[in-house]
Design a protein that fits this description.
alpha+beta, Umud Fragment, subunit A, 2 domains, 7-stranded antiparallel β-sheet, 3-stranded antiparallel β-sheet, 10 strands
């Protein structure tokens, strides 16, 4: 009899554990996110909501795409921070080079055939301005800073803490 009761309690706890975890996470500004695209190889992640977070190179950040974006206006994106303020960025022969090391090739057409406009660097000295970040993914069909430009600090929602 005790064994049956203990199994019921264990089952009950296991059923409510995810709900309790979500409630505790939300209290501390942690959220569960998911990725439905193949642009990053993470499917589920926990992120900390913190719009004052100053990303580091390689961080996965959550941000809102600009409201004037032709494809994904105001949508939340998760991308890697590839370049930081004061990094040198160049666009040569359809490639973005960051500090003459990292290269990302820009495409002319999206995977659905739509014409893509490459991000035109706004200043001639090729330095990423203060509070701006260049984001990307290593997937060839990623829609990222190569097309929509820098992510400004005020677009950042938070950063990924754990991902699978």
């Amino acid at each position: 009899m005790i064994n049956i009761i203990s199994k019921k309690y264990i089952l009950l706890i296991l059923c409510f554990l995810p709900i309790i975890m979500i409630i505790c996470a939300r209290i501390n500004n942690y959220y569960i996110g998911y990725n439905l695209s193949s642009s990053i190889n993470k499917i589920i992640f926990i992120y900390k909501k913190d719009n004052s977070y100053k990303p580091k190179r390689g961080d996965l950040i959550i941000f809102k795409v600009k409201e004037n974006d032709p494809f994904f206006a105001n949508k939340k994106f998760t991308k890697y921070v590839i370049a930081l303020p004061n990094d040198n960025i160049k666009f040569q022969e359809n490639n973005y080079k960051i500090n003459d090391i990292v290269t990302f090739t820009a495409k002319e057409f999206g995977k659905k055939g739509q014409k893509l406009t490459n991000f035109q660097l706004p200043n001639k000295n090729n330095i990423i301005p203060k509070d701006n970040y260049f984001t990307a993914s290593f997937h060839r069909d990623s829609y990222d800073s190569r097309y929509f430009g820098y992510v400004h600090q005020n677009q950042i929602i938070g950063y990924v803490v754990v991902s699978i």
